[in-house]
Amino acid sequence: MFKAPRGTADILPQDQPYWRHIEAVAAAMCERFGYRRIDTPVFEEAGLFVRSVGESTDVVEKETYTFEDRSKDSMTLRPEGTAPVCRAYLEHGMHVLPQPVRLYSVHVPMFRYDRPQAGRQRQFHQINCEAIGVADAAVDAEVVELAWCFFEALGLKSLSLIINSIGDPKCRPGYLEKLRAYYAPLLERLCGDCKRRYETNVLRLLDCKKESCQPHVANAPKSVDSLCDECRAHWDSLRSYLESLGLPYAIDHRLVRGLDYYTRTVFEVTPPEEGAQSTLGGGGRYDGLIEQLGGPPTPSVGFACGVERIILNLKRQGIEVPPLPPVTAVVAFMGEAAKAPAVKLASDLRRQGVEAVLAPAGKSLKAQLRYATALGASKVLILGDDEVRAGTVAVKDMATGEQKTVAVEEAHVSLRPPLR
Ligand code: HAM
Of 5, 12, 240, 264, which has fewest CB within 10 angstroms of its CB? Predict the structure, then answer.
């Protein structure tokens, strides 16, 4: 028997209330902050991610689903949403609009060939927001606030907000030199991944999770101590905005993020449980990305969070979400002669805006009522030979057990008001 591919999951009807609720809260919150929805394709030219996310990142090196299509063009299932949104910004000339252009996407399927575990999948979904086109630290604070308000609106508790600044192309090279100099005499004591990253991406040594590397990480030089004047001013204003907004941040100098496009601000929101795969969301500033994609200098900042991880944490924290409304009416029928009128009645009710389903054929009335109970139906409409002949229908209230007979064309009146 076939199974869903490793690292993917079916989203079953019983989990849909979480998905719907999260989507509704996310969309409402993004729109309250003035963000507008954008949807981009599931796959893009492979080069887009190589150029933006970075050749030496885990995502591009080991995790992309890249394939040659039938025209021999190399395509990648998107592993993240920022590069596609920036590509769309450029392609549609959004730089002529008033800046910043605020964009969001919800429940976007993403693909990373990662080792699956709780909270880590190969197909997962993100909520993504990007504010493109301004360098102002107030917009960094806005994005952090948006993320925080979203988690708060979902009712998630005990979250931590960590921030850092990793500088820009002016001051970062000097910082990387300091980091290399610090790590050079320690190389023998580092884990295999760190040894490799020392050569390819020295910044990533700071977010190594291996126990044996932790003392080295703790004593490493901090990027915030090597910022140039402009980056320092940006960092100082970001912190003062966050303070005036009452956002409870902590500075974590190990926070560097796993994608190469970040400049200056980086941040993450984490739940009480520790662990690399527990981060609910993260983001930061990416001032050079659009230029790297061939556009004009376009400073930008954004954030993304994982829907599966949010659901995991809602469940862990016992937070309930609004259930889907149960089916309003089940149309039951007794005998073959009542079947066609029952099919017609269910259809008429739906046209009148009532949720109505037909009970399964060939079953006793008792079994049809059991079916209605399983669906949570509030009313069962029963048609038999007598009702068909008289042009009536029996309406049974499933909560009280009461039953009354009404004219068939009046049936919808005894149900809840039609949906608009
Ligand atoms: P990211 O940190 O790679 O950032 O992913 C954001 C979030 O997606 C993570 O915090 C996590 O909740 C979720 N996530 C990532 N990988 C997986 C996985 N394998 N399984 C389940 N959930 C996962 C970005 O993608 C950036 N594009 C964020 C951003 C937007 N930066 C600026 N703008």
Answer: 12
Who's near 14: CB < 8 A, 6+ residues apart?
Answer: none
- Ligand 1 geometric centre to CA of 304 (Å): 6
pLDDT digits (tens, 9 = 90+) for 257-274: 988 899 999 999 999 876
Question: Does the predicted model carry a pTM greater than 0.85?
Answer: yes
What is the reported pLDDT for 57? 82
DSSP 201-256: -GGGGGG---GGGHHHHHHSPPGGGG--HHHHHHHHHHHHHHHHTT--EEE-TT--
- Expressed in angstroms and rounded, the spacing between residue 80 Cα and the centre of ligand 1 is 7
Distance 181 CA to ligand 1 centre (A): 31
Confirm or reject: Cβ of 84 under 6 Å from ligand 1. Answer: no
Give 329 Cα–ligand 1 centroid separation in angstroms.
42
For residue 322, the tally of other CB atoms under 10 A from its CB is: 9
Rg (CA), the chain: 28
Which residue has its alpha carbon closest to ligand 1 atom 17? 120
In single-letter form, the type of residue at position 145 comes to E
- 209: phi then psi, degrees, rounded to nearest 5: -100, -5
Phi/psi at 101 (nearest 5 deg)? -90, 120
Q: What is the mean pLDDT of the chain?
A: 94
Q: Choose among 224, 32, 22, 290: nearest CA to 145.
A: 32
